[in-house]
């Protein structure tokens, strides 16, 4: 069982995360089943178990700068493996809000730009066009050869075709309409 020993402000951090996420993190057993199946856990990205340990210990800055929730792809693997049903997506959303409110910069400098380009592609074509999205990101960040080695490996494995850049420009109007509706709803409009 975890016992908080930090300053009051650190203890409050745990309560804020629990309140916002609706997840009782105090039930976490630190069993590590979540991180064992997490596709983004690596040497650089600790994974959900460590992130929860930081929150439980009141390590506000470490948790808000932990790249796990910035990189989280919401695959749900951790949730299906968790014996106490902790929903990491809700925890990641709560941390994202708290980081924004606290003016904490993302661990990956241009992550918001990537998100924007990713969503623009989905809005326009109904799915992400990997090559175009990454090419646009590399051009804007002035790093044209970034991750080219990975692109070659993915192409060899058939994950996407280099011809994608030349074809498939048809717009998906249905998906564009969904985006427009969501935008109007979040701005307080009515349908
Ligand atoms: S699987 Fe659940 S209980 Fe185990 S460490 Fe992860 S969040 Fe905690
Ligand atoms: S939902 Fe996020 S934290 Fe959980 S396994 Fe998937 S990538 Fe990892």
UniProtKB/TrEMBL annotation:
Molecular functions per Gene Ontology: 4 iron, 4 sulfur cluster binding; metal ion binding; oxidoreductase activity
Q: Quick one: a GO cellular component term?
A: plasma membrane
**Entry annotated with the keyword Iron:** yes
Q: Which InterPro entries match?
A: 4Fe4S_Fe-S-bd, 4Fe4S_Fe_S_CS, HdrC_iron-sulfur_subunit, Helical_ferredxn
Domain of life the protein comes from: Bacteria
Domain 4Fe-4S ferredoxin-type, which positions?
61-92
Q: Specify one Pfam family.
A: Fer4_8
Give the UniProt keywords, A-Z.
Answer: 4Fe-4S, Iron, Iron-sulfur, Metal-binding, Oxidoreductase
Q: Does the keyword RNA-binding apply?
A: no
Q: What is this protein called?
A: 4Fe-4S dicluster domain-containing protein
The organism named in the record is Desulfomonile tiedjei
């Amino acid at each position: 069982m975890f016992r908080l020993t930090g300053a009051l402000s650190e203890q409050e951090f745990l309560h804020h995360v629990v309140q916002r996420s609706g997840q009782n993190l105090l039930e976490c057993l630190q069993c590590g089943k979540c991180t064992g199946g997490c596709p983004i856990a690596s040497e650089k990205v600790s994974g959900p178990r460590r992130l929860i340990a930081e929150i439980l210990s009141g390590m506000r800055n470490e948790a808000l700068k932990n790249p796990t929730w910035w990189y989280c792809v919401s695959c749900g693997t951790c949730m299906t493996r968790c014996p106490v049903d902790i929903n990491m997506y809700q925890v990641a959303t709560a941390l994202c809000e708290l980081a924004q409110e606290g003016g904490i910069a993302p661990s990956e400098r241009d992550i918001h730009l990537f998100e924007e380009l990713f969503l623009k592609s989905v809005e326009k074509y109904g799915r992400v066009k990997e090559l175009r999205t990454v090419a646009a990101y590399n051009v804007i960040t002035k790093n044209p050869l970034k991750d080219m080695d990975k692109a070659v490996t993915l192409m060899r494995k058939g994950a996407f075709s280099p011809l994608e850049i030349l074809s498939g420009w048809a717009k998906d109007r249905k998906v564009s309409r969904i985006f427009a509706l969501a935008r109007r709803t979040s701005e307080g409009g009515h349908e």
